[in-house]
Amino acid sequence: MKPTIYSVAEEAGVSISTVSKVINQTGHISERTRQKVIEVMAQLNYHPSVVASALTGKPTKTIGLLVPDISNPFFADLARSIEDRSHERGFHVVMCNTDNDAEKEKKYLSLLIRQRIDGLIVASAFRNANLLKNMLKQDIPISVIASEIPHISVNTVTVDDYKGSYLATDYLLSLHHKKIAIITENAKSNHARLDAFREVMQENGIIVPPQHVITTEASIQKGYESAKQIFSMKEKVTAIFACNDLLAIGVMQAAKELKIDVPQDLSVIGFDNTVLSTTITPMLTTVAQPTKEMAVNVVDLLVREMKYPAMHKEHLLLEPKLIVRKSTAPLRREATASTNN
Amino acid sequence: MKPTIYSVAEEAGVSISTVSKVINQTGHISERTRQKVIEVMAQLNYHPSVVASALTGKPTKTIGLLVPDISNPFFADLARSIEDRSHERGFHVVMCNTDNDAEKEKKYLSLLIRQRIDGLIVASAFRNANLLKNMLKQDIPISVIASEIPHISVNTVTVDDYKGSYLATDYLLSLHHKKIAIITENAKSNHARLDAFREVMQENGIIVPPQHVITTEASIQKGYESAKQIFSMKEKVTAIFACNDLLAIGVMQAAKELKIDVPQDLSVIGFDNTVLSTTITPMLTTVAQPTKEMAVNVVDLLVREMKYPAMHKEHLLLEPKLIVRKSTAPLRREATASTNN
DNA sequence: TTGAAAGCGCTAACAA
DNA sequence: TTGTTAGCGCTTTCAA
């Protein structure tokens, strides 16, 4: 049998409330009994049950985390940092991979409610904001990271996607590229990136033909396919802005296969600055998100809201940073992204 | 207020035990009341509390997962699959990154015990097997994946490391390489890989000088540093067997920096078959682990043990597979891994 | 087919 | 400073 507060009390010759007090460091107990109780707890290898304690209304010390897919290195990094910070703050995290699938979102949310999580961190786009509203109604605080969910009032931590995209686009323009395609994911964060791209292009008097805007899912494979699609068009392109590193990697693989030299014949720029951007050849120019900082902030905001539910919501916008590496180069006059034969 | 079983009972005009029965599909209740109760639950947006249910002795439906580091794509893949399978089986998972650090292992274990997890999956080397024994004493079943922990009797799912290493080494030998260095991590799984390497080499009459065996931690950086160290030795090497992909990537980066051509001047072989092996140039020859299959099996074994605690322990050994790509080539007579100047 | 009630391990108010 | 006790939301036995 697992030791309970009763076993400890009995063994130590005190009452359970005394034991409870030394566990929680509440009330006043003499140093002598305190020591005795601590000793007995260690000896019995007693670990107070969060389950029982939670039933009395105390927190479960659990944070739910919804990510699209932990195999995406960007989310792996994010999850890692969120976990570290959560542990530092005394919480542990239950992670769920939604694949941006509405069914899974629903299922996991219900699961998490049943588990009585103290708070929820959402790192994935959310199709059904109503489900989230239900959580809010159940007094479960929510913080959103690297994403945005319309119509609900929650704490939010994002990188300035608009600015990041501006940085990327502007850099490409400074390299004299004019025919630039963009591959985006259908997620809120990517909308800002697309908007910024369009505006900067327009400001520079460049019209982006609709076929140069491809919307797809975040994966190397999709990046590869999108690139193939772009390369097959009549209207050639000299640069591609992929809205995340996974897509960018796919683009580079497609280019390689078609013997399109990056960066000589095609400049590629990514977003996220994951490991992949430094292991690919040539190394990827990309926009870095301060994942660590973002993670610390979401956790802290969430924990703050658990303590002070009434507090106003915060919307943190962190600075992206353009990391110039080797996948981008100035436009060569003759360059076109066509196959070599 | 969150709805409770009482609110539902009252609203539906029945007793709480009736509600409980319809939730758990136990006992006999008329279709009519059943429908009524279900209706009320939906209307009240009621989600039964796992916390309360667990207090009565039922499972918490929580599995603890200890991984070294989720930023390592191998563990990210593994974690993803473990989670998917756990969800399928009705459990959710609490993940903890140990960094193979004894302090963290201890801290997280205590955390998980307090949370009353139903079972634990260990994917990390474990310095302190006694802590795990304590869990076993508390009747918390443990399954180990991609690792092995001496002196404790638990279910185990691993790839056949010995065979994987044999495959890799043998392949290198078939390419006529004789001067092969190996970079390993100080973890149980890697010991088998090192042993196999040594034996195969010996069988072929090749003596591996001690300086050609480097033990370090699993990271790109460490792989890079180890490679630098190897390249600086008097005794040149024509191939490097890195015991995981991260290390192999580091090796390739170091080689590139020193203008050592892979695979012409140096063959590199990895282990794990992560994304990185297909995004690096040249693509990495590596040994694939069937992560998905492994994940499904650990979860299933763990769940089985929860149900039938007395059952004998199983030790699953899955087949590795050599994936030949572009980082390995036959030995050129003149080749030595030296810098080009 | 339904309900009453004890108990799971703990917290917190209150009493001693 | 310590102990008694009611309750947290549920399950389960037993009775009706």
UniProtKB/TrEMBL annotation, chains A, B:
CDD domains recorded: HTH_LacI (cd01392), PBP1_LacI_sugar_binding-like (cd06267)
Signal sequence region: none
Any one GO molecular-function label of the UniProt entry: transcription cis-regulatory region binding
Keywords for the protein's UniProt record, in alphabetical order: DNA-binding, Transcription, Transcription regulation
HTH lacI-type domain sequence ranges: 3-57
InterPro entries, alphabetized: HTH_LacI, LacI/GalR-like_sensor, Lambda_DNA-bd_dom_sf, Peripla_BP_I
Name this polypeptide is given: DNA-binding LacI/PurR family transcriptional regulator
